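> @MW can you paste both from yesterday?
MW: sure, first one:
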Amino acid sequence: MLSIVPLGCYGSDLENKKSISMLVSPSIVIDTGSIMSSLDTDQLLAIKHVIITHCHFDHVKNLPIFADFMLSLGNHSFTVYTTENIMTQIMDHIFNDLVWPDFTRLPSRKSPTIKFQPIRFDEPFSIEGTEFLPIEVDHVVESLGFIIRHGGDTIAYSGDTGICSNFVDHINSDPSIKTICWETSFPNRLEKLATASKHLTPAMLAGELEKINRHCEIHTFHLKPNLEDEIIADTKSIKSPMKIIPMKQKRPITVS
């Protein structure tokens, strides 16, 4: 069984609506927008593998604090999986000893809190029996989506993206994919903003769904929390045979 638990599924923070963090297993999380406010101490200590889709703040927000937490509770370490380019962005702009200490050298270079594992587009890697195929998606910075497999179960995960033929092509070439997590950040009236920032509206998502060669279950995420009701109303107007479900925090997305 493959299950993703959205700890946070919004494109920002507002009241109890949290930025992106997707728990793939007790030890694996995609992005760190809200792990510190969503998990207790034992659950945080269980995380050993952190996958970063891109360097935008809502996706890396808790990464520095998580590193400090792991170090201060007894030299615990974890591995960050991302591309070399995104790794450089994180090191240059976060762990630069100005914004935050360099946790690739703390408590020592031989025993760092953070260990980076570079990954490459279209080269699958496995963590504890779960396979991740990194896909280049179309965002304003280098950004990753994934095809995630465990056993015979598969989920496609868009990450942050605008209209992206590469993501669609990967879905269409893999008939095992019946469940797709697809970002939908802005309401239809803000299409110009969505296009400029390389995100999707429900109308743009509808155009992408028309390109898919079979029926899938769609879980929308990365909604701007202050616009959630409007985005959901626009999503309900999509004419598609596919089932479209807005993600809810802590509600698992399960394929079995």
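MW: second:
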Amino acid sequence: MQYRNLGHSDLSVSAIGMGCVTFGREIDTQSSLQIMDYAFERGINLLDTAEAYAQGASEQVVGEWLNSRNRREQIVLATKVGGTLTCERIVSSAEASLKRLQTDRIDLLQTHVWDDATPLDETLEAMTTLVQQGKVRYVGCSNYDASQLAAALTLNNESGLTRLATVQPPYNLVQRDIETDLLPLCDRENVGVISYSPLAAGFLTGKYRRDQPVSAGSRFDVIPGHQDIYFTERGYQVLEELDESARTTGQSHVQLALSWVFSRTNVTSVLIGARNKSQIDQAFDALSLATVAHERN
């Protein structure tokens, strides 16, 4: 397993991170615990969850695993606070997350989305307070665009508030907007990038096709908003190119899509979701492919 420094922090994280969104929502507690066992055995040390995942159930499952396996000191624990990002909201959310996670500190607390309703300085001041209290080690953001991240970093520099160490954007063969401005900004400012949705919510697995109905219970059925992002002319063109690559290389759509993201040198860690151990194995196979390709070049 490859480990990389996360932005300007002293956190070292695995190139593959465990996205915990499925825990307590799509798979039960026992299956979730087994997946974390296997991920840890294979060298994954980053667990990324959020208060919003299954209304806190994901954090509870992660907390049970950390406590029952006595793994807290060996894990980089990340979670997120969403909604209205007022001082009161952030502090109360962090306290509730700490209880569910059964720990006295969060390694990385991230804002889940940008909040237009709350002054940015109030949000950053609240997160700074949590750092000063020792309840949070580092802070970051999720789903910020380049202008939003730049505004936060400018305020950090001007006010002395705790600097954002990370950003968490979606990144895959279809969603590549961050290459234009967000990734260059992160490179200049030494901000770690934890990307998610490397398989485009399942679109890049090849099971979704033009003019075919969406299967009941699939990710695109449960979260229909994903269809607007991926069921597009560009999305289908990417899928057709992936079809051709799969035919010529003999590799699966999943291997090709994952290895492409793992080959991006400006991404610190790629979050994967898993409902079973084989999906973790797929990610490691893809990481190996990306590593071999990099060494050849």
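> thanks! The chain has one domain: 3-198+261-296.
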